[in-house]
Amino acid sequence: MALLEVRDLRVSFDTPDGTVRAVRGLSFDVEAGQTLAVVGESGSGKSVATQTITGLTRGAQVSGTAFFDGTDLISADQSTLRRLRGAQIGMIFQDPLSSLHPHYRIGWQIVEMIRAHDTVISKQAARQRAAELLTLVGIPRASERIDDYPHQFSGGMRQRVMIAMAMALDPALLIADEPTTALDVTVQAQVLNVMRRLQEQFGTAIILITHDLGVVAEMADEVVVMYAGAVMERAPRRDIFYRNHHPYTQGLLASLPARSGDRLTPIAGSPPSLISLPAGCPFAGRCPHVFDKCRTEVPPLTDVGGDPRHQSACWLPHTVSEAIAS
Amino acid sequence: MNNDVLLKVDDVRKEFPTHSKEVVHAVDGVSLEVRKGETLGLVGETGCGKSTLARCMAHLYDVTSGSVWFDGKEISTLSRRAMRPVRREVQMIFQDPYGSLNPRRRVGSIIGDPFAIHGIASGPERKKKVQELMELVGLNPEHYNRFPAEFSGGQRQRIGVARALALRPKLVICDEPVSALDVSIQAQIINLLADLQKEFDLTYVFISHDLSVVRHVSDRIAVMYLGKIVELAPTHELFGQTRHPYTRALLSALPVADPDTADSREQIILGGDMPAATNPPEGCRFHTRCPKARADCAAGEPPLISVLDDRQDHRTACFHPLTIGEDMSTAVPDLKAS
Fold it and tell me: Which of A44, B110, B276, B279 could form a disulfide with A226 if both were Cys (CB 3.0 to 4.6 A apart)?
């Protein structure tokens, strides 16, 4: 059994303009010690999905299940979720400054977090642990910097502090939502390196939410490609890049600035409104291979080339992926 | 000044005071030329001074010292009034398609602003010109009366492009024009900018932190670190014949969307953070993080010159430039050795 099994997750929000169907029937597994990358553009539902799993979406209508180590996170009560968050499931977000309290020293914040879950640990031991964690994520002179405030750290260092906090109780799963998007590339390389190293050392499973296909290629074991709240394709990393099936996956890759210096190939148009989704495939309006059936019937996620690890939600034949792949 | 040169930046410095009476040396002695019809890329990380330099180029900032020349004329000393005719020829496109458009004004009047400010066209004639511009950048001219909020991010950036092009400028300075956009939309805007450059003989300065974008659009690239240009070269040389250790580190840090390359390459992970621009290191500013640093790097500042057997066009500010094929991943700094 996988560490996390999400089945048919649906999340919608009521707004004055209508119901926003942010996540529409999402299923995926995360295996222990593996990295699952969830990739998609703005509004694809990638962040809402994981926030819902950890009980962080408010005022949403949620259905489906998300079994983590035997507990359904969707139906679990707040106290169960609180116990799991931090201890079993660590989380880091795009903007570390808004996740750290500006008024408290970072050491104090890590100690609080440890003691919230571990009621027997002494203050002294928790502080010792905090210093170890800061060293672990590569913060120089950790024993001195433990008494600094968040604003005294650079963006990259703050994100390391967040990772230290997320890893404090040795969680089985780390959810990283665009962890390096706000960082410069050289700092991003440092932070991704820290995440890789910790995963090797502690066997932590990672859900990496990103819009950056470069980061996916560097980090992922498995990849889920989301569009308009649904999975378009899921596959092991190399299949997504070299034997992809879904026209949206192909469009994303073709949009990247090429090495050749030739003209780019964007995806025409823009994503559909999540309030009034078209019938059929959500990508039909922008798809270069669209045909009649695409506009009327939603394609199910089915195996590509008979491989259950590689699935695509597209009406194009699923046996000729090599021929279609760009 | 050479005929090919449209804009020349000569030893420009821009300092900002801080509350604690320190001085931020945002741009610290930069000289470069932008040639007619080219796209000059400007890359570097947060705080390297690239956006400040761009604003100095457009004389949106007064320079602390040095000079900026546009089309053979010094513009860095011009008054607001004297600058006006130059503004028609030098335009900017900004990163944030949300923050740079007034949400309470209709796009027609936003795009028509340049005509109004310069008293060029009014009434139905202005509307006609605006709608032509909208068509040109791929917006539906019927959406003339809509508000910015009714457009997506990519469409808003098209509005910014239309506004910048209204007066048929010679030079457009694009400051992170696609950084806020999703990749599929980013490609649309990059293609649009390329088409417009061809159609109107535009010259671009293209600023981005994203090397893969800069590589795609630029003829030449200047790499900045802590207020200085560390390497300036034609694009293919900057990538194929990288000389500066910082450029190499920057290239190496860029994630590549190709699993085979990602798995096989040796990444260079720089230590530490970029030092504060209030108190930049002595000597070469990169020496505190450079894997190849030696004693002379801390002692003196390397000039931006052509090194080894490079042509005049490829300039590097480094005492120990990389040779072709040199492996930097195993280099260790030694500030005692020369």
Answer: A44
Strand partners, B139: none
Residue A189: list chain B partners with CB under 8 A: 252-253, 255, 267, 269-270
pLDDT score, position A321: 47
For chain B, the structural domain boundaries read: 5-225, 243-316
* pLDDT higher than 60, residue A322: no
Alpha-carbon distance values, B201 to A188, A304, B5, B172, B215 (Å) = 37, 48, 14, 11, 20
Quote the tokens at residue B280. 């930049």
Buried-state track A33-64, b at ≥16 Cβ within 10 A, e below 16: ebbbbbbbbebbbbbbbbbbbbbebeebebeb
Mean pLDDT in chain B? Answer: 92
- CB contacts, 8 Å: A157 with chain B: 273
**Mean pLDDT computed over B133-143:** 92
CA distance, residue B271 to nearest chain A CA (Å):
8
The minimal CB distance from A217 to the residues B259, B267, B269 is found for: B259
CB count, 10 Å around CB of B156?
22
Q: What is the per-residue pLDDT for B218?
A: 96
Query: What pTM value is reported for the model?
Result: 0.89
CATH class for the domain made up of B5-225: alpha beta
ipTM: 0.85
Q: Hey, are the CB atoms on B256 and A214 less than 8 Å from each other?
A: yes
How many CB atoms neighbour CB B102 within 10 A?
13
Q: What's the confidence (pLDDT) of residue B320?
A: 96
8 Å CB contact of A256 and B153 = no
Q: What is the least distance, in Å, from the CA of B102 to any CA of chain A? A: 23
Mean pLDDT of A77-92: 90
Q: Residue type for B294, please?
A: R
Asked if pLDDT for residue B202 goes beyond 80, the answer is: yes
Which ranges in chain A are annotated with CATH 3.40.50.300?
Answer: 4-225
Nearest Cα of chain B lies from the Cα of A255 at a distance, in angstroms, of: 5
- For residue B156, the surrounding DSSP H or E stretch is helix B153-165
| Residue A27 touches partner B, C-beta closer than 8 Å | no
**To which residue do tokens 């059936």 refer?**
A293
Q: Fold for A4-225, please state it.
A: Rossmann fold (3.40.50)
What number is the average pLDDT over the span A13-17? 90
- pLDDT at site A261: 58
Least CB–CB distance from A252: residue in B45, B183, B212: B183
A214-232 residue pLDDT tens = 999 999 999 999 999 999 9
